[in-house]
Amino acid sequence: MLTIKTIAEMQAWAGASQRQGRRIALVPTMGYLHEGHLSLIRLARERADQLVVSLFVNPTQFAPNEDFDRYPRDEARDAALCEAENVDVLFQPPVDEMYAPGHAVYVDEDGVARTLEGAHRPGHFRGVLTVVAKLFLAVHPDVAVFGRKDAQQLWLLQKMVRDLNFPVAIAAGPTVREPDGLALSSRNAYLEGALREQALCLSRALREARRRFQEGERNAYLLRGAMLDIISAAPDARMDYIEIVDAETFAPVAVVNRPALALLAVRVGGTRLIDNMELSEGAAS
Ligand code: PAF
Asked: Is 0.85 topped by the overall pTM?
């Protein structure tokens, strides 16, 4: 596995691969890899000849009061995991390589990026869209793979690719869960003691919404209420939002009569977690 740290070298490698007719897949990550990332890496492996994983904790998607400094990092372990997955290139640029002094151009979206995660984390999606656009321009992927756990991020990246005509196909991998239902996240490392158990309120709430949906409930207000009851029962859990949106437009719905997503963000102790589940006739239980 090659480790590349500069954009110029990454672009040169990508150009050479493309001249040889090889398809490139990219899995962007912020490191501290877990099974969720590994499942995306395996999905990407099937879609291309060359596999690049980027490892970059992107400062522009964290607000000043957020956890950029304490975000979990273990670069040696990440590299070993990528090596074991037969990753061809680990792209691991330092911060001043991605954001040279004076960097001032950003990619942003004006609608959905202001709602839900964007309303609670102003500037977050501007940081995500900008860094992913820069990664695309460095790696020249034919396909890039993202997880469905970050459903709003996935929707916005698909929109960015359409609106800015990036020649990249976006593929989505399913959320990977612990056996008890907790969605895998690098931030789960913050959950200690009783908080780990309380964090199950997110997946329990979503499963309850799906159960009621499958029994015929279509009123989004009532489905959200059922989720809120479960979150409120966890003593250290505080809801940021619970919403049901149209899966295609990401607009909140009052009646679930088309494929929808139930989404929630909850602070468990000091740890902010997000999760979502599809509500549609054919969705797996
Ligand atoms: O989902 C993430 O880990 C990050 O938001 C991403 C897409 C790697 C951009 O920094």
From this structure: yes
